[in-house]
Write a structure and sequence with these properties.
The protein is α/β, with parallel strands linked by helices. It contains 6 helices and 12 strands. Strands 1, 2, 3, 4, 5, 6, 7, 8, 9, 10, 11 and 12 form a 12-stranded mixed sheet that branches.
């Protein structure tokens, strides 16, 4: 860059002798690969293989421990990432955020990027998704971080606000299902891998049970999912339902999502993620 600057001065007929280089050295800044994060937000850290690269992505909705914003404008004040009952349609049990719905037209896109602090309760995410669904937002992705890179994972909105809607429409009426329809029930103490169809375990008798305290064994989970994918290779069986406890921090849920979507080598497992409340 300095050589280019000196050459330009000579070419333009600068009066300075060639032996006296310009004392001002211009250094071009290296572009950062990390998407700018809204104030007060610490993104979740996830494995790179389970998420898609999203360097330079812009989040339309951001959630810090103290506020929910749309394009940088505060829409709602939060307490430790939780939405107050008074700000929910129907009170404490409500899943729709009226003020977010009112501002949803400002999003200006059918695909919405969410930037969530890693400590955000899972329930807050579900309330946001339920509201976006009512607002006819068809595509949502959650941003996270893997080392120096920003990553994203697309989330499929449920056809109903609660888990029962998805389960009710996918459980076969009679006979075995040709698809596994895998699901994960996640709490602060336990993870259960089972299938809605009953092909590979049930919630009461799961295919895999593991403790989640002090942490989730993502390697073991990944191996079991790879075995399941290999054994039941129906190309249409690409979705997995995550039923997580409402109080879990989003960091724990996104770790599981990354493991579910692909192997460490990048081989797709269950890339379509559906989220519902495990209460």
């Amino acid at each position: 860059m300095r050589l280019l600057l000196i050459a330009s001065l000579v070419a333009c007929g600068s009066s300075k002798p060639i032996s006296e280089p310009d004392p001002t050295v211009v250094t071009a800044p290296k572009p950062s690969v990390i998407t700018s994060t809204s104030p007060g937000i610490e993104l979740s850290e996830v494995p790179s293989t389970g998420f898609d690269r999203a360097d330079g992505a812009t989040a339309q909705i951001a959630v810090s421990p103290s506020a929910l914003t749309i394009k940088g404008k505060v829409v709602l004040s939060l307490t430790d990432g939780q939405i107050d009952a008074a700000d929910l349609q129907g009170g404490a049990l409500g899943m729709i955020i009226p003020r977010l719905r009112e501002h949803s037209q400002e999003l200006g896109a059918m695909r919405v990027m969410l930037q969530l602090d890693r400590r955000t309760p899972y329930l807050t995410l579900l309330q946001i998704l339920s509201t976006l669904q009512i607002a006819r937002i068809s595509e949502v992705a959650i941003l996270a971080r893997s080392g120096p890179h920003t990553m994203s994972a697309p989330i499929s909105l449920l056809p109903d606000a609660g888990a029962s809607g998805w389960v009710r429409h996918t459980v076969p009426g009679t006979g075995p299902s040709p698809r596994v329809q895998p699901a994960i029930a996640l709490t602060s103490t336990e993870l259960r891998l089972f299938s809605i169809s009953g092909t590979s375990g049930t919630k009461d008798k799961p295919a895999l049970v593991m403790t989640t305290n002090p942490g989730i064994d993502l390697v073991q989970l990944g191996r079991k999912l790879a075995e399941l994918r290999k054994k039941h290779s129906d190309l249409g069986d690409t979705a997995l339902l995550v039923l997580a406890a409402d109080s879990l921090p989003i960091q724990s849920v996104l770790e599981v999502i990354a493991t579910v979507r692909a192997t460490p080598e990048g081989t797709p497992l269950y890339p379509e993620i559906l989220l519902a409340s495990g209460r």
